[in-house]
## 1
Amino acid sequence: MKAVWINEPGSIEIVDLPMPEPKENEALLRILTCGICGSDVASFTGNQPFTSYPRIPGHEFSARIVSLPADYEGPLAVGDVVTANPYFNCGHCYACKRGHVNCCHENQTMGVQRDGAFCEYVAMPVERIYPGQGLSADQLALIEPFSIGYHALSRCEVKPGDRVLVIGAGPIGLFALISAKSKGAEVHVADLLDGRLEKAKAFGADGVINSGMESLAEYTAAHTEGGFDICVEACGAPETFLSCIDCCAFAGNLILIGNGKRDTTFLHSTLLRKELNVYGSRNSLPEDFRALIDLVASGKVDPLPMVSTVYPFEESLQAFDALVHNDGSLAKVLIRFSE
């Protein structure tokens, strides 16, 4: 089979590799569509600290079932179009024992610590595969990135009428926006790029601000009675984390999704004075995948407008290059492996 192969940072090519051989309780999947995550781009550029090399990237995907274990009994059938959970947990660490499998101490995410889905076929444990409920291959490839924002918004109670600020209007921030709106919140979005803010408006943002051109503090004062009930940090930058602290209401909630790479210095007494609840959010849970497949299948939410462009598999390297030089105009980029 053919696969996208990152030999080392900065070195990416399409190579021929042996077909995977399913083990006990594994299905063979033919990849249909795969999304390029920011972490995949970071693996290519060498800015993803958790990636080991060489590596097949990719963990946002849809696939068609080619084969199932001989003794399998369940809802899946050969020919089904499905998606899957790409976070492999150990099952025996303290987090896993308590059911927090997304926080496994030894987590291995496809495309990062183990080979991913940017290839023609993968073998996948059947318990990690979710029926697609008639969704398209492109919709199913968006379920995993959608689940990151959705899981983050599940970290604290979001009530109808809550005022939410999302800082960062990349794909994950936009999925956080959609998730908060689905819970009845009033959502405002801040970013430095007007193109991304236009996307936020299209997905129902109640207000947007270019925080590089306008004062976020003044915007907060004008649109709230004392700060936002929930602030979502979706950039991973020290500056945006500090802005969340400043913009959050007393007794408010701060949710961190952005994966920061720099140290942040702040006076922690501010957290005490405002009695803020600070939540980290990592990966997502099986129930997040199932809930989102149900939500999209219901017709209430369609993530497809998130897609900026779709490349054929043969042009995967051009797709990575486009995202490396993304000026903010690209949201989700998909790779079409097969129909």
## 2
Amino acid sequence: MSPVCYRGGELCAEEVPLARVAESVETPLYCYSSAAMAESYRRLAAALGGLPATLCYALKANSNLAVIRTFARLGAGADVVSEGELRRALAAGVAPAKIVLSGVGKGAREMALALEAGILQVNVESEPELEALAALARGRGRRAPVALRVNPDVDPQTHAKITTGRRENKFGVALEAAEAVLVRAASLPGIEVQGVAVHIGSQLVSLDPFRRAFARIAGLVRRLRAAGLAIRRLDLGGGLGIRYRDEQPPTPEAYAALVAETVGGLGCELIFEPGRLLVGNAGVLLTRVLYVKRTASHRFVIVDAGMNDLIRPALYDAWHEIVPVREPAPGAGLAPAEVVGPVCETGDTFARARALPEVAAGDLLAIRSAGAYGAVMASAYNSRPLVPEVLVRGADFAVVRPRPALAAMLAEDRLPPWLVES
């Protein structure tokens, strides 16, 4: 049985009815299942168990400290893309030797912190970045452990806004230029070349793009070794998709078999950066119906969550399953509904013409598969406070990020002297 499912007519996270969470913590709110996260992590780790693999959880999917620590206690490292994420990983107890710093626009302060912390490696994405990192490391009497991120020009067959491995994307060094850049890197006194990195996109639901990308990277590694470069580590990124609607993404076992087939014979240490796969289906956004508004042509279900809380539908036209927290009776009729929020934007729409049972003001709905790229992409647009986050373990739950008070939000602003009353 899934850790997030109906039990006795009530949608529950593990042993906790979500209605009880909503009674304790005002909606809207995010709720995550520890068991669901652990189940996803352990399955992927077991699938990759026959390979020299390190799993570095991608914080960009969900950077709550409690979530990061949950994975750290399971043995995960961290993939971070900013100073803030690096500090979060360290604060959550991730060992520096299991942290990878990625990102196309690293600043000097981020790279300096990575050097001081002694992280596993920095995934460099351009020659100017390589030169900047070399100078920083040299000035500190250090050598920065580096993997060069390569852009293999592979279409991942996913949403255009989350592709990262095509020639026109901003990420990585072109495959044909990689050898020259790595030869240059090996000559810099502040750099210690560790290997090659690749990440082609997010929410991939086919193994074929992985196969093409990994095969190209394997060929590059063989050429680099023939040129005398010691390549001992491969960072294969993340990207394996989850089911939101009717997708049938590859299983971790099938993915692991592909990895073994394409790069397993290279004798390299392997790094993986799963994010969405580990947290996506572990979380829901709980929201309460405010009003049901009927027009001549539509039924609008107006809820208290908005696009500022979950921007994926507005940003990516993303589909999330929406279900009542109280299980509908067998045979309950369904009718089209527009599920919309209170934000003053037409784009503040979670679902269009969605088949839903009758609901009324006060009813609770759960927007599913919201554990990844939900809370981390939220904002305070319309001066709406960030929603709280709740973590469940068995029969217990705890608020792991409270809702900010409006007074505290106002206190963050400062009036300049000429606007202060005398």
## 3
Amino acid sequence: MKITKATKDDWKVIQQLNSQVFLNDEDHDDDLDLSWPFSEAGIKYYKNLADGSYGHCLIVCIEDEPVGYVALAIKDFGYRKSKYVEVENIGVCPEHRSKGIGESLICASEEWALKQGAKKLYVAAYWKNKKAIQFYKRNGFEEIGLELEKEL
């Protein structure tokens, strides 16, 4: 397993890996636009993430095959004292899950966040995504709030 910083040529790899996250999250959000990863906005996001003009992205490869990634960005809450880095999205191919890849990505995320002067790593997870919540808790995250929405 090798973790490397994404380069500008990796945007399609990130897009493909993130589209799998979208498919997984379909069960947790009936308002999720599954075509977004392939939209103009999605492609712009992946290109900016890959070239480093927005955030920071790490890709995990096993024998030169991309099997996971994490997208990170500095998060400014404004009303909170600490500097945060947000795990905007993270994903591991289904056939490679539960093999320590996600944990390695979180560790690498912590290292990058510390280099940015951050004091906290932040992530939001769907309430119904119990596996993700358990994963984050196993990796040291604690609950700090609850997001709510109302259908109109």
## 4
Amino acid sequence: MPVRRVFASLAISVAVAIGLASTVSAAGGYKIEFSNNCNNPAVCFDPNVAGSLGGDWGSISLDADGAGKAQFTTATHRTPGVATGAMHFSFVLAWSRISSLDTPPPGAFVIDPNGNYLVINVVKPSGVTPLVTPATPGHYKFQGAMFGMPGVNFMLQINAA
């Protein structure tokens, strides 16, 4: 299911991220941009990684009142048995910020340098797994070529609004 792939890909991008710390603004909202591209058949055909060649690109806007919205586009190409092309998704979100200095909360794949996390829940459509990301603003990235996986790249930018 493409929606699951979008959030799985975002979670993976966070999981392998290296962050740059800064402070959170008093406003309490966040703007998150991400992209991931998987163009290495040896890695990308694995359903535990991406399930197909292609990528996902999107933005998340989290308002200070705990509401938010997201826009994602996912595209696949040259994958046997998978439709080729792009699909767009819109999500209505609810979110909260939590602190966990001793251990990361369930679902967090990278340790926030300050022990703060964003727990993002999809309100509409329902049934999408929650996402847990660092709350510390910064640029997080993974370049697969550094780990023997050329053609696999992820980027996550978290900004305090």
